């Protein structure tokens, strides 16, 4: 074969292999879930037959650390095909906030959808803060529900840095009380008032071992779970997911160890848990996605999902992060 023929054949096989790899990657339900935008900090919410997934939009350029200006929402009915509903809010919709559309969670209460999110407050309350917005539908439009921050940096004891008050998780207990937990390095919990826009009572610190950020509260059976991004700086460079359980939302919390390893190529990881159509899911993020000439990075992440399995005693089985995600049926 002539040299040009060899090159043509080699090129054909290279393209065919790349296309096959891409087709394989794109199997519905495989990871990452969203491939046309960088997304982070997944927060699922089940409403009827639909799972909504709220994420932050990562727009970091080159070696920028984070550039997050808006939150997006996607929905699915089968965990395989996702509908993009676009942005639900921009950080500038909170007039008192400066920047940083960081981690969020939405909860349904009294026929409305309440959105809690971490942002950077303006100079009147320096540091990170927690915002609350409301909508009549899960896909928005959401509007600032309070006109000021729900939680500011001064409301918690002075932490090691100014981004201590981030990453809200919200959970309504069987008695109808909604709780909010949040934090970075220190983890706090408080009751929300029935109006959903005020803190009712004291803020308590519940920091579990190796807590870094990204707490997620949920309950299964009679057990309460506090799942979070953990970092044991003596042994690891990147965050993993760990969790604690308790017989009541008030504790006492028992540390149960790590649930996952690190997200591939990512310093951060961020858990979000949901039961949907009889199965349990753990949403995470990693930094494996490349879009055009932009590779994954600390500020260019991609949300993923894995099946979550429980042991008979309620502990969660370790989760291995895969490319296949939920494209294949869960093991029995
Ligand atoms: O996405 C910005 C911040 O990085 C989040 O608030 C943290 O949980 C970490 O994922």
UniProtKB/TrEMBL annotation:
Highest rank taxon of the organism: Bacteria
Pfam families: Glyco_hydro_43
GO aspect biological process, one term: xylan catabolic process
Similarity remark: Belongs to the glycosyl hydrolase 43 family.
Positions bearing the site annotation: Important for catalytic activity, responsible for pKa modulation of the active site Glu and correct orientation of both the proton donor and substrate: 167
Keywords: Carbohydrate metabolism, Glycosidase, Hydrolase, Polysaccharide degradation, Signal, Xylan degradation
Residues in the signal sequence: 1-21
Molecular function terms, GO-annotated: hydrolase activity, hydrolyzing O-glycosyl compounds
Protein name, per record: Glycoside hydrolase
Active site (UniProt): 41, 213
